[in-house]
Amino acid sequence: MTVQRVGLGTDLHRLEPGDTLVLGGVHLPSTVRAVGHSDADVVLHALSDAILGAVGAGDIGTLFPDTDPAHAELDSLEILAEALSVARARGCVPVNVDVVVALERPRVSPHRDAIRARLAELLGIPADRVGLKAKTEEGLGPIGEGRAIGATAVVLLAEEETG
Ligand code: MG
Fold first, then answer.
1. Are 51 and 82 contacting, i.e. CB atoms less than 8 angstroms apart?
2. Which residues, chain by chain, have CB under 5 Å from ion ligand 1?
3. Which of 64, 156, 153, 74 is nearest to 115 (CA)?
4. How far is the CA of 162 from the centre of ligand 1 (A)?
5. Which end of the chain is more exposed for a tag (fewer CB within 10 A), N or C?
């Protein structure tokens, strides 16, 4: 029987005025940008943590400590690539993922399929195995007030068949 492993990751970043929001490796036109370690792509950060969690390999904070100045401008694509590499080293590859982004603006739905296609490409799976939903938080809390963006991701990994 193929062993399968589920992982969960979350992320949150502050927003400030800007012109581009990076979500799932896709640059969206926006009136806000996410602030934080690296390029603050909450989707890739949550996914990377989910992948690492599925194989019991800690989180991106342990792989790329933000106390190290070398990581300050780290591209989130590199973070995801490293998480996938850690999983592959343990014999695991992605089966499917599901992601929820929480934000007030910009609207994600016009870009949903582009982000799903990009994530599928990055993960090496078909786009129909990538779920992406966006929701607002009814004006409540830092996300609802437009001061932050959050993401939650679950991933299923399968141990690769050998021989
Ligand atoms: Mg983050």
1. no
2. 11, 45
3. 153
4. 34
5. C
Q: What's the 96 CA to ligand 1 centre distance in angstroms?
A: 21
- How many A from CA of 49 to the centre of ligand 1? 9
pLDDT in tens, 73-93: 788 999 999 999 999 999 999
Which one, of 107, 129, 128, 127, lies nearest residue 118 by Cα? Answer: 127
Distance CA 113, CA 116 (A): 5
Amino acid at 90: R
Cα 121 to ligand 1 centre (Å): 21
Q: Is the dihedral of CA 149, 123, 80, 61 positive or negative?
A: positive
60: CA distance to ligand 1 center in Å?
9
Span from the CA of 127 to the centroid of ligand 1 (angstroms): 24
Residue at token pair 């989707």: 43
The answer to whether 79 touches 153, Cβ cutoff 8 Å, is: no
Report the alpha-carbon distance of residue 122 to residue 120 in Å, rounded: 5
The model's pLDDT over 28-67, given as tens digits with 9 standing for 90+, comes to: 999 999 998 778 999 999 999 999 999 999 999 888 887 7
